[in-house]
Design brief:
With about 400 residues, the chain is an alpha/beta fold. The strands form five sheets. It has a seven-stranded mixed beta sheet. Strands 17, 18, 19, 20, 21 and 22 form a six-stranded parallel beta sheet that branches. Strands 12-13-14-15-16 form a five-stranded mixed beta sheet, covered by helices on one side. Strand 10, helix 4 and strand 11 form a beta-alpha-beta unit. Helix 1 runs parallel beside helix 3 and helix 6 crosses helix 7. The structure holds MU-OXO-diiron.
Amino acid sequence: MNKKIMLSKNIYWVGKVDDRDVPFHRLTLTKGTTYNSYLLMTEKPTVIDTVDMIYGREFVENLKSIVELEKIEYIVINHTEPDHSGALGSLAAKAKNAVIVCSRLAVEQLKEMYKLHNREFLVVGDGDTLDIGGKTLKFIETPYLHTSETMITYSVEDKILFPCDIFSTHVANYEYFNDMAKEDISDDYIGYYKLIMHPHRRYVQNMIEKIRNLDIKMIAPSHGYILRENVQSFIDIYDNMSKNIEIDKKALILYSTMTGRTKKIATIIKEEFENQNIHSEIMDVNKISKEEVIKAITEADAIFFGSSTKYADIIGNMEDVLKDISTLNLEGKIGAAFGSYGWSGEAVEVVQDYLRDSKLKVLNTSDVIKSTGMIDIEFPIRIKFSPSDVNEKSIKSAVTYTADLLLSTI
Ligand code: FEO
C-alpha cells in the first residue's frame, strides 16, 4: 500500500476503491463503490470488515505492508454479505491466529461461506465490549439493516462508529472523507438510503434509538465516504426519513370463513394495520352486498382477500367478488391472499390466481425476498387451522411489510 489512509491514531482504511460499473442488487452502480475495511493497530491488531471477494488477494497483500498477518488477533465481521466478508477466507488463511468476531446469526453463515468450521469465533451481542489492547470495541445489533445478522461496531475511545452498510454511499472516490469530497454527497447518500435502508425503516428507527446516546465523532461505513464533518446531520437524515408519517392510506380485509379461523386471521391483519397507523376496514363478503364490497375495493389502497378451504375450493361469496376484480381498474393498489386450511389450502392458491389476473400488485414471497432479503414473510398467508403465536407473528410481519410498501408510495 503506497499511501496510508488514517482515520485516527492507529486506525487505517485498508479497503478497495472499485471504480468499475459495479453490478449490485440487480442494478449497476454507475459511480462505482468502495469496500471500506479498517485496521486498528492496537496491542491486539483488529480488522473490521473486509472487501469484495474478487479483491481478496490484493487486500491481504496490502494489509501485510502495515501488520504482520499472524499478529492479527481479531477480525470483526459486521455483515456477512460478500462485498464485505468476501476476503475473509483469504485473510483467515494468513491471519491464522485471529478470532472471528460476529453476531450469533452470522456464525453459521461465515462457517459455510468460507469453510471456517474449525475456526475460533467470538459471538457478540447488544452492548458487549471487547478489549483489543488500548481500545475498546462495543457491539450493537442492527437486525435487518439490511440483513438479519448485521451489527455495528463502535470504537469507544476514538468515538468512531463502524456501521458497515448503514450510513454508506455508493461512490468510488479517492478522497475517502466527506469533507474532502469534490462535490456535495447528499444525493448519493440519500439515494443509497432509499435503495438499501428505506424498505427496513422501522429497523432504522430501532438503530437510531440504540446509537442515540453514543458520542459519535466519525462514521466509518463500508461503502463510500467516511463521515467526519457534520456527522449528526447524516444521522438525522436517516432518522427523519425513517419516521412514521401521517398518511391517508386505507387497507381493506375481505374474508369468507367456515369455522371462524379465517376470520381470526383477518382480525389480526386489521389490528396490525391499525397498529401501523393505517386505517383498515374488515368485511365478511357473505354478509355485505357485492356492490358495497366492490365499492370498498375501489376506495382501498391495499386489499387482502381471505377464504377458508372446503373441498379444495374457495367458500361462500368470495369467488363472485374475485371474478369481478379483473374488470376493475385497480392499478397502483396492493392485493394479497390469505386463509386457514386443514389439509392443503387450495383456496388460498385459487384466490392468488384470481389476484394475478387482476391489475393489482400481488404480494408474493419471491418479491419480498428479492426486495428486502427478509425470509420470514410469506405471501400468500397460509395458516393451518387456527393461527398460533408463531403464525400471529408472521402475519404481523406480512402486514408490516405491506404498510411499508404503502408508506413508500407517498
Ligand atoms: Fe454492502 Fe449488504 O452489502
